[in-house]
Amino acid sequence: MMLVVDVVKGVQTQTAECLLIGELTCPRMVVVLNKIDLLPANKRQSAIEKMTKRLHKTLEGTRFKECPVIAVAAKPGGPEAPDPEEPHGVPELIELLKKQTYLPQRDPAGDLLMAVDHCFSIRGQGTVMTGTILQGSLAINDTVEIPALKVTKKIKSVQMFRKPVSGAMQGDRVGVCVTQFDPKLLERGVVCTPGSLRTLYAAVISVRKIGYFKGPLATRAKFHITVGHETVMAKVMFFGLPPADASEPPSDTKPSSLRPCSLDSAFSFEREYFYQDEYVTGQGEAGPIPEPQQWALLEFERPVTCPSLCLVIGSKLDTDIHANACRLAFQGRLLQGFEDKGYAETALPRLRIYKTKHKEGQVERVTDEYSVIGRNLFKKETNLQLFLGLKVVLSTGETGVVEGGFGQSGKFKIRLQEGLFPETKQLLSSTSKKKGKGGTKSGPTNEEAPKTDSQPVAIHLHFKRYVFDPHKKMVQL
Q1: pTM above 0.85, yes or no
Q2: Residue 276 CB: number of other CB atoms within 10 A?
C-alpha cells in the first residue's frame, strides 16, 4: 500500500481512514510525502524531517510501525503550472517500491473470483472484461458467472498485457473475452465460478469497533456496509453472549461490561445470545478491559453478492467530511448469510437472541396463607393467559406462581407453594388495617387519610423473550 500525505496539511480525515483500511487489508505500506515544492527552499528539509517524525509517531500503534517515508514533488508547480519542472524524488520512490515489492504466495485451486474494473466491446471479437483474479483460476472455454446479472458466459479468449494466453490464476491481471454480452450492463463488478457466490438479503457478522470512531454503535441504526465489492445501507442489530451469571437477571438490554467473555467464541445457531442496545466497548471502572465477543445482524436495503468470510466494514459516510471525525465505525467477517427474500419469517427465528424483561407490582391483600392478590404488575388490557404459571418472587423472599386473574382491572392471584412467612403476614396485616381505616360520612375518606410509612410488599416477575420468536413466548429465567 502507498499512502500519499500532503506535506503541508499533514494527516487529514481521509488520510486516517485510508490508513485504517490499509491496516485491515495490507501487510506493508510506504508513506509518500507529496508537494514538497510548496515548502520554502530554506526550510524544506527541516519541515520534511518534522513531518516524518510526526508520521512515525502516528504509526507507532499500527502494523506499519517504522515503515519507510519518502518525500516527493510529483508535479512541481501544480497541474496549472505553465512549465512544470521535473518531478522531485520520483526515481527514488520507484527504487523504494522495487525493494518493498514481494511476490505473494498464489493458489490456483478453489472457485474463481475476479474483480472486473472495465468492460468494453471489440468489433468482430466480443466483449472484454478486464480485471484482477482474486482467487482460483480460469482458462479458455471455462464457463463463468456474472452474479449481479445472473448470467453465465463461456470464455472465448484470454489476454495478459496484450498477449494471448490459455489461462490465468490468482494475482494475474487479465482481459477475458466473451460473446453475446452487452458491455453497458457491467461497468464494475465480479465474475466467478457459477454458483460460488451468494446473493444475500441479510447476514450475521463478527464485529469489532474501530477505536477512532467517536460515539456509540447503536442497534437499529443504519450504516454504510462495504462487503465484497459493494457498499449498501443496512440496519444493524448488535448481540453478544449471555451474562456470565445467568442466575442474576441483567438489567433489560444493557449487558454488564464487567462480565468477561471468550474472544474465541464462534457463532452458532444452537447457542443463545443476548440482545444489546449498543456495541459494548472495553471500558471498565478500573480502565480498559478486553472487549467481549460480539456479533451483528445486518439487514441490507438491497441484496448484495459476496463470498463467504469476506471482510465487512461499517461506516457513517454521510458524516460531514470536514468534521475531522473518523467515519469508519466497525469491521468484521461475514459468518452467515440469508439468501431468502423472506428471511425474516424463514431464517431469523433460528437466531436465539433474547431480551430480558422485569415487571414489578405490589401485593394488595392476603386471601389465605398460601394465596395473595396482586396489582400494578399488568395493565387492564393485558392477556393474563400468557403469564399463567410464571414464577414470581416477593420482596420478602417468598416464591409463587401466577394462578389467574382477579376481577377486570388487571389484578391477579398468586399461589405461594411454601406459604407466607409469619413476618410477611404481620406486615400485610398491618398494612391492610391502615388502608381499611375509613371515615364516617362526615369524616375523611380513605383518599384523604394521612400517608403511612409502611412499604408495600413488592412482586417481581423476571422472564426473557426471543426477539425473532413469531409467537412472542415468554420464557422463565
Answers
A1: no
A2: 23
